[in-house]
Amino acid sequence: MLAQTELERALPAGLPPILLATAATPSVAALRLPFEGLGPEGYLVRTVTLNGRPTLLIAGNGDKGALYGAFALIRHLATTPFADTLSLSSAPRVKLRVLNHWDNLDGSIERGYAGQSLWDWWTLPDFRDPRYTDYARANASIGINGTVLNNVNAKADSLTAPYIAKAAALADVFRPWGIKVYLSVRFSAPIELGGLKTADPRDPAVAAWWKAKADEIYRAIPDFGGFLVKANSEGQPGPRDYGASHADGANMLAAAVKPHDGIVMWRAFVYAETDPEDRAKQAYTEFKPLDGKFADNVLVQVKNGAIDFQPREPFHPLFGAMPRTPLMIEFQITKEYLDFATHLAYLGPLFTEVLDAKTGQKRGETVADVVDGQAEGHKLSGMAGVANIGRDRDWSGSTFNQANWYAFGRLAWDPDLSAEAIARAWAAETFGNDRQVVDTVTAMMMGSREAVVDYTGALGLAHLMATGHHYGPGPWVADLARPEWNPVYYHRADAAGIGFDRTTSGSNAVGQYAGPVARAFAKPETTPESMLLWFHHLPWDRRMADGRTLWEDLVGHYDRGVAYVGRMRQQWDSLKGKVDAEIWQKTATYLAIQEREARWWRDASLAYWMSVNHRPLPAGVRPPEHDLAWYKAQHFPYAPGQAH
Ligand code: GCW
């Protein structure tokens, strides 16, 4: 049993004998332990007496539970010494805990900053790189049970026989670890591969093509998970091309996988260049009327916020607004908008901030209640994370980026965990249980995402990054073809003020929120300052809670963000000699890069804002190092992760 090997590798000596079992094992059944609530994946780890001997029992209703229990025990003992009695028990709150790989068939990764794709499509299916097994082990250890292998900007090729065989080889490696394989599909594949004239979901020939394709996939991968679809978004084909709805498209695919117990994850990330509506509103406008129209094996996958994985966004208004549809939440683990792998930004606080947000729909209901299906008693529930994994030796582009993969898995299993508890556990499992190391690392991590918010644009500003690659500042960009690709579209700064008016006097995106939440966002006085300019256009002189003007406050945030990175460097320096030398050195170098780039963000942004508002910097504030023209002249044609 795999769990046995994991225990042998990781457990300290001096424990009582361990029994890995299932609820049905006769000696275990006799103990009458509470297995009922555990489902197929939950576990129970207990010190029990078996045949008169103290025994450490690890069990679930099936093998998957025992495997997760083994990892839970390893995790527990990494942070807590063994005491004579032990009792751990947990079952996942979310059913589908899935990574989304935006990996292309040529080995590149869209928005990937950890090297080439782990999947070597060229040598698959014959060569099964041992790293595929390590990948599966790492995922299983944090409860992830599914992986979408290819980019949502999908090529039809991944549905051809050779690529199905390659996916099947990966599925074979992952299966023993409880991980199912899914594929992103290109909606127009019946035209490209099947020679049909249309991909209209209402055309019987199209539905028949997908059904035959699903049957073919299931012959190769009997436990294939299903399809992920990006349709009618950023140029991808979809049902809207034929006047059919997203529900028509999703349901047609759902029918194809239904006989095999497959599911469809249909993304709500849609916005159209032809639509002048505030981009933040478009997904809700398109999907809300479809509530109740999706087949029962469809989940609608909604990004955490209404724009696009910004360092901070208010939660997406669709959460709670489609009670008859299971909504998956999609987080981005890879840091497309947080300056890539080099910047240390622990995303636990970003994830929990959204999961804990009250939807305003039902009393006390949170986004997590919607996502885990509890709110409406949905059978299906899911959480997706856009992976930050590549072929780099450290898997994620840096040691600290592994924490974001880890936090995603832990929160998908239990959305109620605190970001800090997860950070502490990760620090101890990664660097060992030295108190000073764990405290320092946790302290660095906990404020790190807020620091990125501060030095890239606080107070609810968003999408100020440079064009295309999204690396570094570009708040001045105003010349792109589609209005909503331009940073100026988002910040709307002029001599008088700054911010996007999303109240009734503006786009009224606030109207997509419910109850007390909508009421709070409707007025600047009741909007949290961290989201102020997301919802309101306000004068630069507006008084903030601390008595400063908005302009002074914004400047203060930039300086605070830069200072935080400086402090992280000192904190990390204090750990020299206490963590692995190679990891220490790389992290120290990355922190130096981060500090330089945080300054660059600050200086470039201030230079630009001053060119718009014609205001001096508050007394004592250091002026930008260069003039605005210098910042505008910076170009990075080979920045990693670009779409192509
Ligand atoms: O975040 C944006 C990215 C695109 C991505 C898109 C999406 C896969 O810039 O690269 O495409 O979102 O989520 O579909």
TrEMBL record:
Homodimer. It comes from Sphingomonas pseudosanguinis. Keywords: Carbohydrate metabolism, Glycosidase, Hydrolase, Polysaccharide degradation, Xylan degradation. GO terms for cellular component: extracellular region. It catalyses: Hydrolysis of (1->2)-alpha-D-(4-O-methyl)glucuronosyl links in the main chain of hardwood xylans. This is Xylan alpha-1,2-glucuronidase. Residues 18-73 form the Alpha glucuronidase N-terminal domain. GO terms for biological process: xylan catabolic process. Pfam families: Glyco_hydro_67C, Glyco_hydro_67M, Glyco_hydro_67N. Residues 79-395 form the Glycosyl hydrolase family 67 catalytic domain. The active site is at E234 (proton donor), D308 (proton acceptor), E336 (proton acceptor). The lineage of its organism: Bacteria, Pseudomonadati, Pseudomonadota, Alphaproteobacteria, Sphingomonadales.
